[in-house]
Amino acid sequence: MNQTNEGVRLQKVLAEAGIASRRACEDLIAAGRVTVDGEKVTWFGARVDPQTAVIHVDGKRIPTRTELRYYALNKPRGVVSTMSDPRGRKTLIDYVGDVPERLFHVGRLDTETEGLILLTNDGELANRLMHPSYGVSKTYLAEVHGPIDRDLGRRLKKGVKLADGFAKADAFRIFDQVGKRVLVEVTLHEGRKHIVRRLLAEVGYPVQQLARIEFGPVKLGRLKSGTIRALTTKEIGELYAAVEL
Asked: Domain RNA-binding S4: where (predicted)?
């Protein structure tokens, strides 16, 4: 941040990041709700370099580098979570081919699992989201055969011994039930391969179908299978916060 004519006015950077109109952003600055590189800014003449400045509004970081992109994709079943496949199967590139930037997928879903996968060209954010030390939670809907034991949630949250160590759920609930077809919601914060399938199989409930519906603060919502959307500024800020950026 500087007080010269170099850089871009802070309120313009905020407005272009989608925070609010430029006038409303001036009100945010005046109210002391904006920090730049850790310092509170309350005057409208402040200029910043969007490529390097770390800007927070109400304690949440906002994206300012215009070349960075953040997307959510509802991956269909049968699609490989890579950008290419030597066997000619459908991959993520089939759904993001219109995006000019080269994107990275944040983690993977196995081929038969559908649902939310994040894509970005923000390498630092992607690496942190995948790193186990930050423990970003993921929530899944799994179809299993009922009836469900009354103490299943307690067992999953206590922890189950798998071949590669203990695994446990952070949260569990029955989402829906029609006859013996039961949808259960499982939240956990680790990303070992096939972890949800292995966890439920170990306690006697092999998964019939599986979908990820949340990744940290980002929810799948009503995003149709095979479609992509840009993340909101709020979602990006919450992802930053989840990994301490």
From this structure: 8-72
Alpha-carbon distances, residue 154 vs 114, 150, 161, 172, 198 (angstroms) = 26, 9, 14, 8, 17
Mean pLDDT of 172-190: 94
49 among known catalytic residues = no
Cα torsion 132, 135, 137, 143: sign: positive
In terms of Cβ atoms closer than 10 Å to its own Cβ (0-12, 13-18, 19+), residue 164 is exposed
> Which entry of 27, 110, 164, 176 is annotated as an active-site residue?
110
**pLDDT tens digit string along 19-32?**
889 999 999 999 99
Do the Cβ atoms of 128 and 141 come closer than 8 Å?
Answer: no
